[in-house]
Amino acid sequence: MEFGERAVFTLARMTKAPLPIPAICSEPPSRCSVCATDRLAHLGARDFGDNANDFHSGTRMFAPYRVDIAYYRCCACGFTFTNAFDKWTPQDFRDHIYNDDYLLTDPPFAEERPLRNARLVAGLWHCEKGSTAVLDYGGGNGRFADVMNQCGIVCESMDVFHRTDEPTRGSYDLVTCFEVIEHVPHGDQADWLAGLRRFVGPAGRVLMSTLVLDRDAVVGHHYIAPRNGHISIHSGRSIRTLAEKSGLEVYSINQEMHMLRPRAAQDQCD
Q1: Higher pLDDT residue, 8 or 55?
Q2: What is the reported pTM?
Q3: Cα separation of 169 and 166, whole Å?
């Protein structure tokens, strides 16, 4: 699709009245779900229709819903989150965020990002072809796993919103998790990471991507985007704090890419 065609399609969508969404929690959170402090700052609010592609394309993808989504920032660990969707069911998320219009908020989701990430991982692990088992945790439509298998690296995919495949192994040498943790509700962060942790072998690694926001965490940042499902945005400190709860240590390669590994047994006993 050419840019002009996309622009016409977008404008056509903006003329449609947005569908009513389920009830939004309006009570402020009592404490940070990562570090448990009660020192929270109200960062501001975004309209439910705000999404990251508004910033990247320079064109609004959806007409305003006129539903404010309040975001808060932990004054201790820097975790930025909203509790607006705390009462939503998985089906609510499928119906109103991860639906047929989701690609308008994240065009690289279906093809570009899975291909880019598969080439990166296959290049780094090329010497281990045939001996490395990979699990793509929160793998979307499974495209990343398909390309990895084509490259000769055994890879499975699981995603609660997009496919229901169950992993066939108890543990994996590598668990990948690209652009997922920011979609996990704030109160489920620890359980979600613990669920990922159980698939990491003793010498395994986790390769995770998510944009960490430290000093530049302002509510207008394009990554704080409710229509994308970006409801839990980490700082460098908060992601390390969360990882420690599951016995993992974090090495951030850059602001977006992070490697996690099980802490050494002696370290866990300190």
Answers
A1: 55
A2: 0.90
A3: 9
Q: How many residues does the chain have?
A: 270
Domain boundaries, the chain: 3-269
Q: Which of 120, 188, 119 lies closest to 160 in space, CA to CA?
A: 188
Residue 217 · residue 40 · CB < 8 Å: no
| CATH 3.40.50.150 holds for 3-269 | yes
* Rounded Cα gap, residues 121 and 117, in angstroms: 6
Angle at 108 between CA 61 and CA 110, to 5 degrees: 105
More confidently predicted of 268 and 220: 220
- pLDDT band at residue 160 under the 50/70/90 scheme: confident
Pairwise CA distance, residues 50 & 69, whole Å: 10
Sequence letter at residue 259: M
Hunting for tokens 């002009």 — which residue is that? 4
